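Go through the following before class.
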Amino acid sequence: MTKEKVTMVVIALSLSVLMGCSNVDKQKNGNNLDNGSKVEQEQKEDVKADEKGLVNELNEIVKDNDNLSDAIKFVDTNISNVSEETASQMVDIIEKAQKDYLTTIEGKYYAEGMPEKFFNLKKSVEDLNELKDINDENIKDLITETKSLGYKVETAEGMHFPIIDYSFLKKYSSYVTADMKEYIDIMSVESDKVPAKDAALTIGWDDMINRALTQEKFINEYKDSVKLNDVKELYEKYVYFIFNGLNNTPLFEYDTKTMVSEAKTSYLTAIENKDNSLLLEELSEYMEVLKGTDYKLTDTVQEYREDAIKRFIDGE
């Protein structure tokens, strides 16, 4: 074999060795990447399993209707360690537990002698949720329990009773999904100032429209939200208010059948910018019908608003 041939063989062998090493390195790197992905996937699955375990544990706690306090403490302790989706599940469970326990705590307000105590106390205490102003220990203890469980005291027709205080749930807002945060905000507005009591509106016509528009936006943006039906139910109530008013806050004066001036002003202002809102488009058409009757309630107006409400509520 000539010297040149020997040199060529050596070079060829060297290249094959180098290429072989390169292939081995690639294989090793590939295996490392696969192992890394596998470890990462296993870690994700472990986290999901842990979070599922926490949700199951919370569900076990709320099975007993008297364990609402323990459930709230459990969420307070664990919500910062879970994903937004799991945090939202936890808040949803707490809200349902509050709804389930509401009848129980409500019964304490109607226990023998309590309605009279509340009635007498209301004469001297403007806000019963302010504990510092309450001297009666029984009532003070009950309201303390009420607030600790995420409720607040509300009044209607001379009676006092608890309602869910959604501002209580705001402490979880930074941990939950966008739709759950928005839901808490919407419901906090409702519990901070209920829209109606004693068959009368407690908020202005413009405020009523603004709340309904916020609800409509939620319905359009979060079609897959677990809270969609809750917001739809609230929205339907507001649609009814907007087109009808209430017995003690009618949309039309009882004697003249003329549209209440404050409502007329608020509605005409609102429809100036429809902004792709089906509610405002419907309200705009409603106001056109009313314009034709000089803003008086007639059979035509009555028929139109009944159809309008059906379109919203019944989907017709």
In short: The longest strand covers residues 151-156.
